[in-house]
Each structure stands twice: as structure tokens, then as C-alpha cells.
């Protein structure tokens, strides 16, 4: 005779009597692959492109490395991956330098957003972007994972104040004298 197993927990166990559970976090991803030789060729044939795509801090970091082209290509791919996670691509008013890839003290890549890119991320409820970069065999790959908070009724999503001069909500990085130009 087969007996049915009792449920592991009661159907309503763990639920609040205050109402339904909040909506789950939203996770958005983007990924990009860049050819190192192509990025190196672009940077050497169009030197003005460097400052339109990369911040001074990114260029300084990459050119201090033994294989600068690999690091530039990884950051190029990271910028594309972030735009894909937003679902916009390079939208109106966005600049490549609105996405900055820096490394923390442990060497882990981090993303700082500015301008229109930051505004779009905030409108999606962005809480955090995690980034993974790699390069090998003449290719660089980046994967961006954006965690967005669920929309809450009431006031718009608020973030901590910016330390960017004249920056808006959610900016959490310094600009280090960046120029503003569109690509």
C-alpha cells in the first residue's frame, strides 16, 4: 500500500499576514566579445577615439599593463555588455565614457556609471552591476549582470548622493577630469 508523503511545510508557512510577498529582484545580463587586434588597430589608427571611448583612468590602467591591448579590448567589451544589460544599446545622449571600468584593490573589475547611462540604469531600479572580464587567444570577453530592485509604489527609486561634480542620483565615482563627447 502506497502512502502519500506529508508536505514538507504547511502551504501558508513563511508567508506574511500583511499581504502578498514583494516582487522578486530582476536580473538583467549582457555579454560581449571583442577582438584584441581590432581594438588595438582602432586605437592606433584613430588616436582621438581613445578619449571618446575610454576615460583617463581606464587608459592609465591599461597602458601600465604589459599587454595593454587585451585590457583595452576587455573594457570595450565590458561597455558593450553593460549597454546590453540595460537593453538599450548606445542610446540617445549616451557616451562611451558614461561607463567606466575600474579595478578595486583586490583587482576585481567594477563599473561606474555616469550621465544618461546612469539615468537609464536608475530608471530600471539598478541596485548593482557585477562584471567579469577575461582575455585569451586574441579575444576579450565581458559579462555584466545587473541586479534591479522591484518597483515600489510611491516615490521614485532613490540612491545615495553623487560625488561626481554636478552628478545626479546614484553616481558613486569620481570623474577625474573627463571630457564630454559623443561617439
How does this structure look, described?
- By secondary structure, this protein is an alpha+beta fold.
- It contains five helices and five strands.
- Helices cover 29% and strands 22% of the residues.
- A three-stranded antiparallel sheet has the order 1-5-4. The chain has a two-stranded antiparallel sheet with strand order 2-3.
- The termini are far apart.
Largest sheet: 3 strands, antiparallel
Strands across the major sheet, in which order? 1-5-4
Rounded average pLDDT: 80
By secondary-structure content and strand pairing, the structural class works out as: alpha+beta
Helix count?
5
Radius of gyration over alpha carbons?
21 Å
Helix content: 25-40%
β-strand percent reads 15-25%
The beta-strand count equals: 5
> Judging from the principal axes of the Cα atoms, what is the shape?
elongated
The quaternary organization reads as single chain
Low-pLDDT segments, ≥5 res = 153-183
Could you give the topology of this structure?
Layout: E1 26-35, H1 36-45, H2 47-53, H3 56-63, H4 68-86, E2 99-103, E3 109-113, H5 115-123, E4 126-136, E5 139-148
Helix pairs in contact: 1-2, 1-4, 3-4
List descriptors.
183 residues, alpha+beta, 3-stranded antiparallel β-sheet, two-stranded antiparallel ribbon, 5 strands, elongated, disordered C terminus
